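Signal recognition particle subunit SRP72, Xylaria hypoxylon. Tokens?
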Amino acid sequence: MSDPAATLASLLRASTIQDHDEVLKLANAAIKASKTDIDAQHTRVIALLKLDRFDDALRAIAEGGHALESKCILEKAYALYKTGHLQDARDTAEKATSAQADSRPFRHLRAQIAYRAESFADAASLYRGLASEKAGLHGDENDIKINLLAANAQLEWAGFGHRIDESERQASRADLESFETAYNAACAHIARAELTKASIILKRARDLCEASEDLSPEEKKAELLPIIVQHIYVLSQLGKDSEAAALQKLVVQSEIPEAPTRVVAQNNQIALAGIEGNPYLTQRVSELASKLSGNDKLFEHQQSVLMRNKYALDLQMQKFQGADSSTNKQILAASTPTALLDVAPLGVISAAARTEMGKGKAAIRKILPVLEKRPYDVGLLLTIIQLYIQMRNPGPALTLLEIFLKNLETVTTTDYTDVRFSPGLVAAAVALYRLQGRQNSARTELAKASAYWRLKPECPSTSLLREAGIALLRSPNPEDMAAAGATFEKLVAQPGQDITAAAGFVASFATRDYTKVEPYLQKLAPVERLTAGADVQALINAGICSAAALTPTTKKRLPTDEPEKEKAAKRRRKKRLPKDYEEGKQPDPERWLPLRDRSTYRPKGKKGKKRAQEATQGGVVKEEETLELVGGAGAVKVEKATGGKKKKKGKK
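Tokens:
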């Protein structure tokens, strides 16, 4: 009988990718003949990995003892990575020797582990280093390029697009030559909300895949499905529902090989069908979606979107109390300051559930007390600000935002100050200041944000520094001019060609330090070319057009320098004369007295004649007498009593 070890060695010398089952059989036979054969055990582990039997490979490594484990560090880390044990895979990779760690396959595996663990910056750095080497000998240059584009796209989705070089952010001509690179380049555009570009590149990726001659029909179908699923999402976001529905008909979910892609496809189908459907039925269908396990799991931003979709269905079904309670627990559980922005969408959902999708003053009254209990809830704060803006009442909104920012400033933790000067909150404050015409306050807010991020090694938003520099450059204050120069200096130091930053840098230092800006003059267009088509005389004849200044939204009347206009003279009314007026005739002197007080007044009836007799004119004059008051307090006149007949008492 032939030696199993010799047979295995001869087979390995002539083996191809189709011989893995035979290699495994011979490796098991060699191990049975000699249990201490490390080479046979190593061969068995590799054969199991090639057959995608990763759990069996881990068991085989454990059975081989310390000697086999020290030799199979790469294989063990790969098996742990494929089974979803990412932290164990990282720990295993750290045990590698310097020679092993520096090898290209090992660095490639570390990049894969970092990518799946959502450490996208580390993954992109490793892939970038691999791409810079001469990879022709290894034959993996195309895989490295595809993975680097995927890592950059994930950085964009995670909000760290500023860490990517500007030359890598835009799709190059080489990226559009294969469907894999085109697909990943389109994903990066989706993450930056450049959906129109993404739709065009996805269409090209689909055409390249269909025209590929290296793939079988089954392989083409498997590669086309993720591209179509991503294109459906882009079309739905662009509002092209009919085109998205037409593409959805081409997707058969059971034929999608990857479980995460299958879940995304199911979500797209539910969203498109639920536009005019029954939310209760939509929720029932979503509960039947595929469950993920092991290494087949969604990324964090994907899980966040699916969770928000679930809460949106709860709001449509009027499950307000449950949605409010669930989101409130998650917001309070976010103990780390860096999670403030991650749970911000939950604050919006909580506000919608608490107000029962209401608006106006009634909604604000319901959620203002909640802000006191959750003083660092960014989503709730922005929801209240939006409600005030909808009511055209920006004053209270700005007051709330200023109090919120001051509360964040009182906490000395770096993470809280990062949230305080986050580009979104700074932009909201600047927009509200400008809405009220408070340009100086807006400039001050931008200056504080610029001063903070200039001290950091990296800024999450170059647009924030650019806007701050432009605002400070317009100020006549020398200190603001110096701050503008420092801001643009940080921008031009970053990789990439930022023409606005170069122009601002030149404008800041041209009059103070010409030698400092001289290297950047070549990046700017010469003045002669900019003014080549300008007709100076026509512009002079047209005059100067000045933009209308923003006026503050206050109800107080503003003082004016214009002199007050003279009040118009009062028009005198024309005299009105009575109808029986005769010129030269003396008017009745008693015409202003009431009728009953005139001498010509004659009352009618018995009571009236009696009152007339008692009057002084022609009536009986009543006798009066004066009585002195007790204590010398004075005297009063009273009518004198007259004697009269006493009435006889009647009989009882």
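The mean pLDDT is 81.
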